[in-house]
Amino acid sequence: MNEPAPFPDVTEALSPDERAFRADLNQKLRAPLNAIIGFAELVAMGPGGSPAKDADVQHILKAARDLLGIINQELGEGGATADQSGADSAAAPRVCDVLYIEDDPVNFTLVERILEFRPALKLMHARTGGIGVELAQAHSPKLILLDLNLPDMHGSEVLRQLQREPATAQVPVVVLSADATPSQIERLLTAGARNYLTKPFDIDPFLAVVDEMVA
Asked: Rg (Cα) of the chain, in Å, rounded?
């Protein structure tokens, strides 16, 4: 008996504009979903609540992950295992173990909360790529977490500048991005990123990557 022919890849028939639209929509949907899953996981990992509350959180997580599955299936699968000047001045004397270059305050707050599970690590925030490069050179962090869509430059340019400077060339960089395009992931890894985690990411794998990089 002959097996039925596989369904054609819909993306093969898309125009460049349609491909760009799907990629952009994929990224825009992943960004808020990252906050939903991340903060729900934090609630689930906190002190025990009532059975009803715990069940409610699990319903939220299941619905969010179901939505992520739909995004992956319909818009493309992700493929890899986030006054500033015053804040920078105050940060100058601080120790920095992990530097997160991220313009979205919600994404930064999520990572800040997650890293409370690693209280020995000191986290620093840069809202632009240029400030991130300056802080990395000044503080020599053990790990840099890098968003790609920054207000002043793309994250790939930040990575290039970090790789170019002797003071930061050996600092591991992990990309945290809602851009799950396989070609983008491959490009950043080839350019020198040590890992690429697509938003939304689960807490335990994220912490495992952090532990590996700062060890």
From this structure: 19
